[in-house]
Amino acid sequence: MSAEQKVQKTKANGITEGSIFGQLLLFFFPILFGTFFQQLYNTADAVVVGRFVGKQALAAVGGTTSTLINLMVGFFVGLSSGATVVISQYYGAKKADKVHWAVHTSVAFSVIGGVLFMAVGLVGARWALTAMHTPEDVMDHAVTYIRIYFLGMVPNLLYNMGAGILRAVGDSRRPLYFLIGSCFVNIILDVVLVAVLRMGVAGAALATISSQLFSALLVILCLTRTQDMYKVEWRKIRIDSRMLQRIIRIGIPAGMQSVMYNISNIIIQAGVNNLGTDNVTAWATYGKVDGLYWMMINALGISVTTFVGQNYGARRMDRVRKGAGACMVIGVVLTAIVSTALYFWGYLFIELFTSDPQVQLISQSLIRFMVPTFITYITIEILSGTLRGVGDAWMPLIITGVGVCLVRVIWIIFALPHFNTILAAAFCYPMTWALTSAAFAVYYYFFSSLKRVNLKKIFLKHQYK
Fold it and tell me: How many independent structural domains does the chain possess?
């Protein structure tokens, strides 16, 4: 057995054995730092553009375009979570042939998805931005940025899928290293292309897709050089129809859930766009600041899904519920810390993005209003991740579809016109988080398969043959 095989064996065993809190934290922190660097290189675009181009360009890079990009990329990432769950379960069960075909199917699926998304983004960019009521003084910047961004969709999706494969087998460190490298590439190119060469939002977009190409090359190199069961061999990259069906069966609900989130956010963004450029820019600025929280809670969601998936595959049923409980505790503690920091010192981040006094004032009011409510979201992330880890993906879709997305849309359409303020638009977030968290808690503790029947019976229903 090679040294790398021994390392990978240790990592896999670590998730299914030993201290639950300890293993979760060891797996979680590399993901957290990775999402921090991912947020950092996204933020670098906004900082450089906001300082060297202007608030219209900042609104284009951080607001409307981010919402549209998140719609499409978020759908694929949600869909690819099906691959992560399948691979983690097979890897935990030590079924090398199933891991092999799941990995190769996932890589092929990423390439096909990247080409399709690139075409849709290039053709539909202006139409989508117009439908969202993007302000005229922002439109040209936004079209330029989003079209260049979508030229890099293949490496973008390849990186996301490759990183998901590594995390599924218990390796959360190397995706972190790759993101750190791509972050520095992006920051250097941002400064050169935007601040020095004065290429505006086009320079920021080119910097972003170049850094994504860099991280994609690193993750693919990693997957092709490993000697573990998840090794990628170019000649074997193809779609296995049975494996794809299993991946999609788990991934489609997560992808649809992401789409519903983002569609509701698009509708909210359209409502904010009607409030004027200052409010649009402040909304984009606040989105960069609260991204510090979302990177943390999303990393915890990834951790619990992988932890539950591997333990479920290894038939360590005693660790499944305990892992969910441990993640809830970790989530509460970290949310309290991050929320306190943002509430009192969030204004320092705002000043990084814009020097406009009015935009700063609006952004600060959003922070003071929204940050104390983050605690209401934890249950959604942890319980939906736990349920996906054992293959229960449809009920989280239904709960979030109604509790989050539908209620938000109703609020924006019927309530916002009566108040017509930025805080009225923001109110739909904590309202829907609280409602949906309550629904998840009721389902998980009283009606879900994890509570209702013996886990060994559930395991037998899922065919690991």
Answer: 1
